[in-house]
Amino acid sequence: MTAPEKARQSSIVAKDRGALVDRTMQRWVRFTGRRVDLDECLWLRGPVSEVDVTGTDFFARWADREGLTVVTDGPPRGLVENFEDLAESACDPLQSDAQIAEFYEQTSEYEFALWSEWHGGFRPFGGALAAGGCNN
Predict the structure, then answer these.
(1) CA 12, CA 136: separation in Å to the nearest integer?
(2) How confident is the model over 21-63, as pLDDT tens digits?
(3) Residue 55 lies in a domain
(4) 100 FRET partner, CA 20 to 30 A, in 5, 43, 60, 133?
(5) Is residue 94 part of a domain?
(6) Nearest residue to 43 (alpha-carbon basis) of 78, 98, 4, 88
(7) Are 15 and 52 in contact (CB under 8 A)?
């Protein structure tokens, strides 16, 4: 088998493993979780990645699907225009530190360092995926 053929086969195996782990995790969430009405819990709304790839263009693809525009310059932008809009029975924004409101209203002014780790019983699955080349 040639090197390109081995790479292609490894990629297929990694995608199959990724799909299996994704299906297993979805079943686990259904078994242990509960249904939530997103209209009642707006704070849970957010982007969800495809099963097989996240990648550097994730937000561009998500914005395109949702009819949104990715803005990369201009005045500061935030997760919300007004932090007080998040007020509900379990959340009083006026009781929060001013820096929290600033973060929510001017998120574009912050830099983030992100990483992910597998913990506990999931660690062997993560190691198997990484070894198989499923690092999207």
Answers:
(1) 13
(2) 778 888 888 899 888 888 888 777 777 777 666 778 888 888 8
(3) no
(4) 60
(5) no
(6) 88
(7) yes
